[in-house]
Specification:
Helix content of chain B: 10-25%
CATH architecture of chain B: Beta Barrel
Strand order of the largest sheet of chain B: 1-2-3-9-8-5
Radius of gyration of chain B: 13 Å
Strand content of chain B: 25-35%
Strand content of chain A: 25-35%
Oligomer: heterodimer
Number of strands of chain B: 9
CATH superfamily of chain B: RNA polymerase II/Efflux pump adaptor protein, barrel-sandwich hybrid domain
Number of domains of chain A: 3
Radius of gyration of chain A: 21 Å
CATH class of chain B: Mainly Beta
Structural class of chain A: alpha+beta
Largest sheet of chain A: 6 strands, mixed
Largest interface: A-B, 17 and 13 residues
CATH topology of chain B: OB fold (Dihydrolipoamide Acetyltransferase, E2P)
Order of helices and strands of chain A: HEEHEEHEEEHEEHEEEHEHHEEEEEE
Number of helices of chain A: 8
CATH topology of the largest domain in chain A: Gyrase A, domain 2
Number of helices of chain B: 4
Largest sheet of chain B: 6 strands, antiparallel
Shape of chain B: globular
Number of strands of chain A: 19
Distance between the termini of chain B: 33 Å
Number of domains of chain B: 1
Chain lengths: ~375, ~130
Amino acid sequence: MEIKKTSLNKLHQSNNAKFVEFAGYEMPIQYSKGIIEEHKFTRSNSGIFDVSHMGQLFIYGDESLTEELEKIFPLDLKNLKQNCSKYSFLMNEDAGIYDDLIITKIEEGYLIILNAACKYKDFEILSNLLGSKFKINLDNNRSLIAIQGPKSVEILNSIINGVDKLNFMTGNWFDSDNQKLFVTRSGYTGEDGFEISISNDKAEKFVENLIEKGAQLIGLGARDTLRLEAGLCLYGHELDINKTPVEANLRWAISKSRLSNGGFIGSKKIMNQMQDGASQIRVGIKPEGRLIAREKTKIFDDTDTQIGEITSGTFGPSVNGPIAMGYVDKEFSKVDTKILLEVRGKKHPANVCALPFYKKNYVKGVN
Amino acid sequence: MSEVKFSKEHEWITLEGDVATIGITKHATEMLGDIVFAELPEKGSNVEKDGTAGVVESTKAASDVYTPVSGEVVDTNQAIVDDPSKINEDPEGLAWFFKLKMKDQSEMDSLMNKEEYDKFAKESTS
């Protein structure tokens, strides 16, 4: 299969990007300054991320669409206000996660942002579940640009006036340069920021404009260190078809009102696990010293019994030390539990710790 | 001090008497990106030509460090363990990795000189 390119590919090239293949796309892993500089720039200034490989699924329909979607997602969509977003999951009957996603109520429908590696399968699953009654479109004509970090609001507002009025996890349509952009105040770095859905032919010029105002392009490498410091899950690592939202310690994302009656795919398993607890749970892990424990590192207790596995591990540039997330047996999931990590044949001490590693800076109360 | 020699695993080596100083090349650090962890062989241990003699990790991945010659480890550079970013700053100078007392100096003969290495490095990336 031919590798796909986003509408910003030329711009990445002219900014000296190093490319990797990610979910069938040629994506920038870093630019000339490197991951640590890019990470720090995002935390202190404003970073631009090309996330156009992600799926933008628009579903339109009448009132019955909300009812149908409530049979799929563990959300109180009836009470979700227009232009408000929620983090959620597409699950199977055993509450195994097909994908994690952001769903936003828009005029006459919903916009769902899907992971790149999952989007075609998600589209198929949702199309089958919803049938032909609704208009469902995985829009490949739009790019998705994230701008993240404390100076992003000022920079973006100078191009799209009014985005500074958005609260965290809300969005709206804006007019700019004779076209409609859908902007949400959201992101995946732990910083204040926005995601902008824009038609492919306007994306490059739009990003050049952001760069002119002082923002810089940031690669997937720093996106990974930023999200890990923020304690956020990455599909294919912390989440997959063998993990449930309860095991992933994401029960906060399940609407309380949906727990009493269930009625969504996977609800039985979720309700059982909410009551009895899951046998393994996702935790934050801080290795002692500078040692980095990467994905698939085995976790042991002090009797040499394996109690879990790391799902993501790297060096956190803002934390200035190694950080990781992983799954451990529930009796080892309490903060400050001492554990051992097996790296290159030796066991090294580490501690279970609270998430996030880096405090989030979301803007919640603009209006 | 001898002329600097280079290995295909992107290590550099200089020889003073029978003690070799070994580090990783600038080209290697550019390919690795920001280095955030370094592990060195133990002083007093013996390492074999082309065997592993340490680890460096970047934000992205871990990579083995190989020794281009055999010998006994007589010194290691603690400064790069304490602050691995020094490896990116001065890989072919202050950020040496370890020193070996060589057994067989003829092992140096098969290594590349600077010109040969630069050509090799250029070809291995393109």
